[in-house]
């Protein structure tokens, strides 16, 4: 008898189109992400990765079908669902004029945390992410790598069960990349589901166990990474990616 694993995300027959933009749309898209998985969503520029993450987090609303996060329908202004996930967007989402501590105070309170919990999580995260020395300095003057780490801390302050990460290591040095990936692996070991996009495919190979390739709003391959590589007779995610999506440059 097949065992049904609990789902973190269940996208069923989902349809979406940006008003006035006919280039990329989703039609009858189905995608299941199991709880506790490290899931990677990959595709060329403009494939629809950020759009799909925006739909899965309720920032955009699907025109058709359903998107369920841990069994709850997203996009219904449901503040309880919002507490279940964290979002680390590609574009920085913090207040540049505030310090890391002030940003975490603000976003922690916004997530419904009380003051002692915010303080405890702030101390913990700033230490783990190597930002303790600059905890009270204005974020505006930080390097790109430091800003990425602040962005990550904000997305995880409320210990979400599912974390969406849209290119969380873009523009960072090797040390910061390792710090971020190691921390994500730690979170996953304690049961957190990761939904990650990146163009750093060698990094992704180390992080993701399940992957989906998306192009033109369609999922063109999805499975366990090792199985996909074996099935497509490819040695790396990058060669498989080129093989399946072609070499044409996208806009
Ligand atoms: N607000 C918007 N209104 C209309 N079209 C949009 C909007 N945002 C994105 N698009 C279009 O939707 C398509 C998919 O964009 P999306 O940002 O989801 O792709 P992506 O896979 O994340 O790309 P990248 O790898 O470059 O970040 C693109 O054609 C883009 O121009």
TrEMBL record:
Q: Which GO terms describe its molecular function?
A: ATP binding; ATP hydrolysis activity
Which InterPro entries does its entry note? AAA+_ATPase, ABC_transporter-like_ATP-bd, ABC_transporter-like_CS, P-loop_NTPase
Would you say which domain of life the source belongs to? Bacteria
Gene3D superfamilies per the record? P-loop containing nucleotide triphosphate hydrolases (3.40.50.300)
SMART domains, per database record: AAA
Q: What keywords is this UniProt entry annotated with?
A: ATP-binding, Nucleotide-binding
Residue span, ABC transporter domain: 9-241
Respond yes or no to whether keyword ATP-binding is given for this record. yes
Name by which UniProt lists this protein: ABC transporter ATP-binding protein
């Amino acid at each position: 008898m097949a065992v049904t694993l609990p789902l973190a995300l269940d996208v069923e027959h989902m349809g979406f189109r940006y008003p006035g933009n006919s280039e990329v749309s989703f039609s009858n898209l189905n995608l299941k992400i199991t709880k506790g998985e490290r899931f990677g969503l990959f595709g060329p520029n403009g494939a629809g990765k950020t759009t799909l993450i925006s739909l899965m987090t309720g920032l955009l609303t699907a025109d058709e079908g359903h998107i369920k996060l841990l069994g709850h329908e997203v996009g219904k202004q449901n503040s309880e669902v919002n507490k279940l996930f964290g979002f680390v967007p590609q574009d920085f989402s913090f207040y540049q004029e505030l310090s890391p501590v002030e940003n975490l105070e603000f976003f922690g309170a916004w997530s419904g945390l009380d003051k002692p919990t915010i303080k405890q999580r702030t101390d913990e995260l700033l230490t783990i992410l190597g930002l303790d020395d600059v905890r009270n300095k204005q974020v505006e003057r930080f390097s790109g790598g430091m800003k990425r780490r602040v962005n990550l801390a904000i997305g995880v302050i409320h210990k979400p069960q599912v974390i969406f990460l849209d290119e969380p290591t873009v523009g960072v040095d090797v040390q910061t990349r390792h710090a971020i990936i190691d921390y994500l692996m730690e979170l996953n070991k304690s049961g957190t589901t990761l939904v990650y996009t990146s163009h750093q495919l060698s990094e992704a190979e180390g992080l993701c166990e399940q992957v989906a390739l998306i192009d033109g709003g369609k999922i063109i391959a999805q499975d366990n990474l090792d199985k996909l590589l074996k099935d497509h007779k490819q040695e790396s995610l990058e060669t498989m990616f080129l093989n399946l999506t072609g070499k044409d440059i996208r806009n």
